[in-house]
Amino acid sequence: MPNISDHKKILDMTADYIVAEAISDFLFNDDDDDVDMGNPFNNNSTFMLDDDEMFDDIDEQDINMDLDYSYSSSTYLESKGWGTIPTSNYMSSVVFNLPEKEFKQDGRMTYEAFYDLVDKIKNDQVFQNNSYICQAPVREQLIVALYRFGMYGNGASAGQVARHFGIGAGTSDLYVNRVITALLRHRTDEVYWPTPAEKHNIKETIQSSSGFPNCIGCVDGTGIVLSYAPVDNEEDFFNRKSEYSLAAMVVVDPDIRIRYATCGFVGSAHDTRVWNNSDLALNSQRYFDGEEYLLGDKGYPLCKEVITPYKEPRAQHPNNKTFNFCLSSPRVRVEHAIGVLKGRFQSLRGLRIVIGKGKSKKKDQARAVLWFHACVVLHNPKTSILR
């Protein structure tokens, strides 16, 4: 049996890693016949590729070029003195033995909620290896991902997180990709349009508090800020707040539960454009029965499905002022929900993802969008704790 050199072993292992990482950038794309309630993988999403396109991008030539650049050009396989991040038992001995309050700072949830989530995703296929190399325990991968979801600024970088947990920066990214994949496979369990019974309760709550009958929620837009200027067409991502961002839209009920979420347009896109291209507008019959509608702000079009405030100068009329005041009361909940989402998962205040150009642009934008949707999935189960 021929001997395999250490250099060849590293090349082979890295080839497997690059393929896995490239696939993880797309995470997954499942097709089903169900109504897609805010599914980020629907046909309206501008960034998704079908399976054939995905694997077309992952060819042997690209892998070999990456390997040649990363390793074959290196003179030495051994460290040149600066060392690597040492492995440690920090997570098992420290992180999972922290007091509840301190654990929530890392994991953004209680121990009970954390282990419930571990039980929910631990059997996902993304955590199963078809090789002799075992993955890290799911709870360790999850805590790393939650820590990154909850961090903002320099503390959210892969390197900082890696040093905090005693793992490699690439390992940190891999853990996050796996957790996002697993969470989004369960997205319809947590983010779904209200059932008829739930609609009835929502209507009663909103009518009793503000006088609007048949209202089933509130809609609002928000920017998912990018920490870095995109490499290509950066002006398209520049929003009215002078930030680079992606445009997102959410529908929220009175319990600040997110019922619908969409994201993917560039930051310069107006709320009206995002609405008009959403499934709520394109297939409104799937969501609205009879005279049902949402409450929105002045950025949304006044239509059958969305009631908006009076604009100037008509807003100065006494009756219209009263109308606008009544409309603003339930809309506080959607602003509250967005604040809770970004306060809990502060990475959404400045995603440390560089949107490149060419093929990379689509993958990078997809990763940013799916990161947002993963945080939305995590937001819903524990909103009652956060009120």
* Gyration radius over CA: 23 Å
Strand composition percent: 5-15%
Task: Give the count of helical stretches.
Answer: 16
Specify the oligomeric state.
single chain
Taking the alpha carbons of the first and last residues, their distance comes to 64 Å
Strand order of the largest sheet: 3-2-1-4-5
N-to-C order of helices and strands: HHHHHHHHHHHEEEHHEEHHH
Question: In terms of per-residue confidence, which ranges show pLDDT below 50 for 5 or more consecutive residues?
Answer: 8-25, 27-76, 79-85, 383-387
Mean pLDDT across all amino acids: 81
Overall shape: it is globular
Total domains, how many? 2
Short note summarizing the structure:
With 387 residues, the chain is α/β, with parallel strands linked by helices.
